[in-house]
Each structure stands twice: as C-alpha cells, then as structure tokens.
Amino acid sequence: MLSKAFVVAKNNWKNIKTAKIITYILMGLIIAQDIVYFILKRTGVYTINAGNTAVSIGNMLFMFIILGTFSIATSHFKKTMNLGAKRITYLNGSFLTYILMTAVISVVAILLYYTYDRYLLVEFVRADTMDIIYWFGWLGKGVVVTYLRLFAFLLLLASVLHTICIIQDSWYGWVTDFLIMAIISVFTPIAVLRKSLVWFFTMIIFHPSPTVQITSCIVLSAVIYLLNKPILARKTG
Amino acid sequence: MIEITKLTKKYANVTAIDNLSLTLQQEGIYCLLGRNGAGKTTLMKLLAGYIKATQGTITIESKLVSPGNMPESVNFIESGSQQFNMKVAELVETAAALQDDFDLEFAWEMIERFELDPKKRFKQLSFGMKTMLTTIISLSNNSKVMLLDEPTLGFDAIMRDSFNNLLYRSYQAYPRLIIVSTHLIDEIAKITERFIIIDKGCLLLETSIDELDENAYTLSGASSLIHPLLEQLNCIGTTEIGSVMAAHIYDRRITPPEGVSIENMSLQDFFINLVGGKTNA
Amino acid sequence: MNDNQPIYQQVVERIESDIITGVYQTDDLIISTTQIAKLYSINPTTAVRAIGKLFDAGILYKRRGIGMCVAEGAREKITARRKQAFLNQTIDSLLLESKTLGITTEQLIEVISNKSGESNND
Question: C57 and C27 share a domain?
Fold first, then answer.
C-alpha cells in the first residue's frame, strides 16, 4: 500500500516540470539581482537604503507547492488512473508527495534564511528580507519549532490548494469557490464575522503557542485528506 | 456479469439511452455497434459509473454502479487518453508498480510485437501508438471488465489490424468481458464473438458471430419467386429493381428454390439493413 | 471463402475435402483453430465452431494436450455422406436444368456414358 503511494509520489515529483522551471527561474532572478547589487555595493556605486527589501529566496520554494499542487490535482489524476492505479493510491500518493515536499522545502527554506538571506543582510546588500517565518512570528523558540510551524502550515496550504483544484470540475467546486469569495467579501466588513476569520487565521498561522498552531494545521490537513475520499470516489476526469 | 435493467439517460430534451435492458453473462469480446449518436459512448460512461442514469439500474458482478460507486473491476478507456510524458518503458514499469496483478511480461511482449519504441516519450508517439500503449497498459492487468470507446479512431488499416490482434491475444491470455465500440464493423468481426447493436438509445439486437454466420444472408432473384418466401422469414431489408429483387434475411437458412440465389451478408450490410430499415419504417 | 454458405460450413467442407484427398491421413493432427482463423482470415470463434461440428460428427477426435486428429473411418464417413448428397441434390438439379433446356433423359444418359467412356480411355 505504502510502496504504491511512494510510486505515485515519485511520479508526481517527476512530472511537475513547469512548477520546477518557474520556481528555478524566479529563484535565479532573485540571485541575479542580488549578485548585481552585491557587485555594485562592493564597487561603492550604490549604498543600501531602507526601501531595499527583497523576498527571501527560500520563500520562492513555496512556488513548488502552489504550482505543483495545481498540476498534481488537475492533470495527474487522470494520468495516474490511466496507469491503472486505484483512486485511494492516487490520494495517498499525492498527500505523501505534499508531506515529503513540504518537509524538504521547509528545511531548505530555513537553511537559506539563516545562510543566504542572513549573509546579504550582514553584507548590507539588503535592508530587509521578507520571509514568512519572520512575518508570521515563528522565530525565537528554536529552529525545530520554526521548522515544525512552517512544515505544518505548508502542508495545510498544499492540502487546501490540492482540494480546491480537484473539485473544480464539479458543482461542489463551484459552490466552494462561491463560499470562499462570500466569506472574504461578507465576513471582512462585518465585525463579528471578521472576528471569527481572525480567530481562524490565528489558529493556523499566528497563534503564540506553537503546539496549537501546529496541531490545528495538521488536524485540518487530515480532515481535508478524509474529505478527498468521497470527492475522488466520484471523480471522472 | 453485467446486468442492465430498463436503463434511461436523458440530457435536457435528448434521450441518449431509452429503456435499455441487456444482460451479458459470459466473458468474451463484445462489439458495440451503432451509428454516431446512437448512444454508444453514453452507455459506456453509464457502465463505468461516470454519469448518473435518469432511470434504471446497472449491476456489475452484482454490485450496483453509479457515480460515487464506481466499479473498480471496470476499466474504461476513452479515445485519446492521456499519459504522463515519460518514456514508454517508464510508463509501463510505473503501471506495473502501481498495480497488484500487472503482467509485465505480457506488456513487453505486446510492446515488441506492435513495434512501440520503449525509448520514446509519450508525446513523441503518433496518435495511434498512444492509444495502443494505453490499451496495452490496460490490457495487462486482470480487471474483469474492459470498456474501449472507439479505440481505433484515427488508425490506418494496418494499425487497426494490429490493434485487433492485440485485443484478441490479450483475450486469449486473460479471458474477460471486453466491450469495444466501433463503426468499422467488418474488421472487428474477425475477433468479436458477440455483437450488441443499438440505435437511438434502444437495443436492436444482441447476437453472436455464429448466429450471424448462419442466419444473415441475402436472397436474390425474381420478385415473384422471392415474395412468397418472405412470408415465413424475418426480412430486415429489400432492394427491388424492376421485377428482380434482393431480400436481406435474418432467420434460419433455407435451401432456395430454383431461380433464387443465396449469398452471405457481410456484417456491414447486415448492420446497414438492420439500422437503416428501422429508420425508414 | 465463397459466398453462399455459412463460413463455418465452408471450413467444415474444406477440411473434409483435405481428408478425402489424403492431405490428412487417419490419426494425423489437423491445423489448430488459431491457424485456421489466420489462414482463411476468419473469426476464431467460427473456426472453433467448424472443428466442433467435425468433432460431433465423429470425423475428428481429441488427443489430449495435442489437438484434433482425424478419426478412424473418417474418410469413409465423408465419402458416404457426399455420395448421398451428390445423388440426391446434384442429380436433382441436373435433371431440373435438363428439363428446362428440353434435354431428354435418354440424351442425358447417352452423353454421360460417352463422357465416362472417354475419361476411362485416358
């Protein structure tokens, strides 16, 4: 069972070329820009100013999740079925892909944050780096906690994106889209409802207790995984 | 194995399948014949649980089929099925790794026999070769029911012939229930055992190659000699020119009287008369 | 394949002819149904049916694990049946055609004995 899920995961990873290309290009652009600034800084042509902030190169890896999920949920389902896989194998394999992918991406993103991004700050090439682990307040409790918070959040992100993509060919996909839009447009102006929205995002992102945030992300991901079972049972294309 | 009871499928005002009942008990290669729009694809989609019946039921191996209750024993191959853009060899090996009873040896034998280049990527294959590969992958497992919708669409004559061979070889290796829809009738007649003919969503006939071989024939000669014969025979169509006529019969064979000649009817002619006759009526 | 008999019947007759003419002797293995299907480009089911008919008629017998073989006395059986068929049907249609053309039975007999005399002299 698990070995088949691994086959699906391997296959998913092999076949998200577009996601890989776009991610690498974006990372390459940031590196190219950094190199230019680095050279300019060394030659003294340019001095750093407060507005000179950039997105962390590690955060660019999240593009893998956004674009990869899209491919896996839209085109990989039918193709995996055409190779004779069972629906449950596809589901397990896809979630295994997300678990492995987010686990690795989180490590690399944190490593890059502490090395590449830090180095540029120290060298005064950048004034600041935009990185979600900083913005979401996930630093300060040890690198392991940061890692787990990031991993849990990315896993939830992947699960949600995967599920939204996979239901787009059915009526409940459209209903979900409508609900999401309704929640955003209706909840935001109304104070009481806005509070619940804030509460939700606190739980999955900002909660001061890492345990609460990590647990809510993992539990929600698991619930979404289970929701996928009946969805896949009736999926045809 | 498959039991269809009073099946109806309506799309808005169009009735694609109209109160169709059919039981397929034995394994075999079944040929689903019908004109364009007769309801062949709709019937296959219903069998695979892709769409919901308006009325009636389908059971496969005693299990009720519906969307949300798709039968795992059914393998439905639509024409133009996509695969991952990997090498043929990789695709086959991945399929083997994903399935419990995949016959890798059989798959390789078929790939060799039908001259698929294992080093080519899926997108580099011609349309026909793509279908061939998808079909080989599907035929190499032991799913009980295979539904092939217009598999030879866009094939040249030689590829159609190899495809039919492929189907027959796989059936010999793994007897099961295979339903192939096509409108290239006489070619498929070389391998199918049974025929399901539908028109306008209704079942016209479910018959075997043996029955057609024996019972489908054409009588020709003077109209005055043939007309009396038709009183006792099931005639599915006639062509009358002056005082001479040809009558297409689907009934027991008779020994024709002097002056009347008997000739086998090709499946193509049989189909045209059966379906065309119905439209003219 | 000709056009006026069911295909399985035609296959039956070809194999029977092969037995009469000695292509297959008693206990000889005959070609498989797959080979028949390929040779005449017909549906294998039809080939199976033809062999089945020959088996039922006692012309062929099954040798386990090997295939179908020509039974003892098969040739005599076929000849006897064909003789019967010839005397009944072929002669009937000969007489009918002669009648249509206004040939008398005496004329027919004369032609037949002349012809058979010629072929005996060869």
Answer: yes
